[in-house]
Design brief:
Elements lengths: L1 H13 L7 H10 L2 H14 L6 E10 L5 H6 L7 E9 L5 E8 L5 H10 L7 E3 L7 H10 L5
Parallel strand pairs: 1-4
Antiparallel strand pairs: 1-2, 2-3
Helix pairs in contact: 5-6
Amino acid sequence: MILFHLMVKLKRYLCIKNAPNYSTLQKFYKRMSTDMFERITNQIINNLNIKPKTVALDESGFTSDNADKYYSKIRDKERKNFTKCHITIDIDTRLILYSQALKGPKHDIKFEIASIRSLKKYDVDYIIADKAYDTNKIRTCINEKIKASD
């Protein structure tokens, strides 16, 4: 229900009758810089008076080819080219608060600390994440730096 209420307000704010097709949004997002995305998100949050209280963090990897694991294994082709996408969302509105895409294998801690620090401006109460985010360094950042519960 909250999402529907938000969408009505958002469509009115953007002066549009119907939400664009998801493919249109994908193409737009592909060309948009991360900085621009963050500015748009901040404008939406500020103008619609959204107060994120519970957020979720997660990451996923994507390969740049269409070959499945079995094919790669029998052909002795290792998958080295992949992109990792890290994302932080507000649970109630499902707005993306922070995102970052990285090419290749990099340790997740670099993203995790940056995404958690970016939440300080929202004054969140709770952060939900999977076991990959369960380290002392991350817990310290959550509890001491932004004063939230994990």
